[in-house]
Amino acid sequence: MRILCISDVEERWLYDHWDRERMAGVDLIISCGDLPATYLEHVVTLANVPLAYVWGNHDTAYETHPPEGCVSIDGHLRDFRSLRIMGLGGSIRYNEQVHGYTEAEMRRRCARMALLAQATGGVDVVVTHAPARGYGDLDDLPHRGFEALGALVERVRPRYLVHGHVHTSYGRIERVCEHPCGTTIINACGSFELEIPDETIERRGGLFRVDAL
């Protein structure tokens, strides 16, 4: 499975100069937030594959204009061809104008989603806007990661956590790092292509229904 992860920065090759060759073979697009609804609508229309998204801290306009033709996974656990994806958008709430959460609020969100994942067979990819604290975040409050997300990956051990929020232009930002529990953490700022071999995706059964993309 080939997944195009996008976040924060609009890519010219996806908007002004659509690169059909580069998009060939993409099965799913995941937005980690802070991208205009019109941009996501343009991308999903031309790509003609599912686009799943979470809210970034600057996506309050989604309240009146959510991205049409796209699927919100924020606060949900969804399946795509047996790949299980969890969404937790937003950043640290550093003022009242952003889509954000306190650490305690995010801890409660993560606890609820962890219980759901454990009851339904686990999760493969956690999609967030903010990073986990200490893994690709910065020290200033607006770009500080959540301790709760680190606790979440330790609890449910997804293969990947994909986030945005921290722009690669901010300095020496690691695109990919590893959490001690084995989760690969990816900064999707702009775009990042993720390949997951189909034969490594677990086919889950069980009694619990999970919403499907």
Automatic annotation (TrEMBL):
Annotated Pfam families: Metallophos_2
Protein source organism: Olsenella profusa
Membrane-spanning parts: none
Name of the protein this chain belongs to: Metallophosphoesterase family protein
Top-level taxonomy: Bacteria, Bacillati, Actinomycetota, Coriobacteriia, Coriobacteriales
InterPro entries: Calcineurin-like_PHP_lpxH (IPR024654), Metallo-depent_PP-like (IPR029052), UPF0046_metallophosphoest (IPR051693)
Annotated ranges, domain Calcineurin-like phosphoesterase: 1-187
Family, similarity comment: Belongs to the metallophosphoesterase superfamily. YfcE family.
